[in-house]
Amino acid sequence: MAQNIAVVSPSGETSLYKTLQEAVDGAEDGSVVYLPGGVSPTNGTTVVNKKLTIFGVSHRADIDNVDGPTKIDGSLYFVKGSSGSALMGVYLTQSVYF
């Protein structure tokens, strides 16, 4: 993955991160996380413990006219505090847990 992960806070401030877990940890409740195309680095598990909206560029790059799909190589765990979160436009290689 050559691009950073952008997190936009509810107040409109943008921060950049290298890994998905760093982005989740650095995000405020109610933030929007933008994942670039390519594989988002994880340690195999990403834990979401706040309300976030996570957007990838696409999970079907072949039909969505984008440069490459957004792929999360690992599992996502939505734990207490993440109620109301959303995940769109990504291809997951493992599982999502609630």
Give a written overview of the molecule:
The chain is 11% helix and 36% strand. By secondary structure, it is mainly beta. The protein has a 5-stranded mixed beta sheet, covered by helices on one side. Strand 1 and strand 2 form a beta hairpin. The model has no long low-confidence stretch (mean pLDDT 88).
Give the integer mean of the pLDDT values.
Answer: 88
What is the β-strand count? 11
Instruction: Extract low-pLDDT stretches.
Output: none
Strand order of the largest sheet: 2-1-3-6-9
Beta-strand percentage range: 35-45%
Largest sheet: 5 strands, mixed
Order of helices and strands: EEHEEEEHEEEEE
Large-scale geometry: globular
Topology (SSEs and partners):
Blueprint: E1 5-8, E2 14-17, H1 20-26, E3 32-34, E4 38-40, E5 45-48, E6 53-55, H2 61-64, E7 70-72, E8 75-78, E9 86-88, E10 91-92, E11 96-97
Parallel strand pairs: 3-6, 4-7, 5-8, 6-9, 7-10, 8-11
Antiparallel strand pairs: 1-2, 1-3
Task: Summarize the entry for a quick read.
It is built from 2 helices and 11 strands, in the order ββαββββαβββββ. With 98 residues, the protein is mostly beta strands.
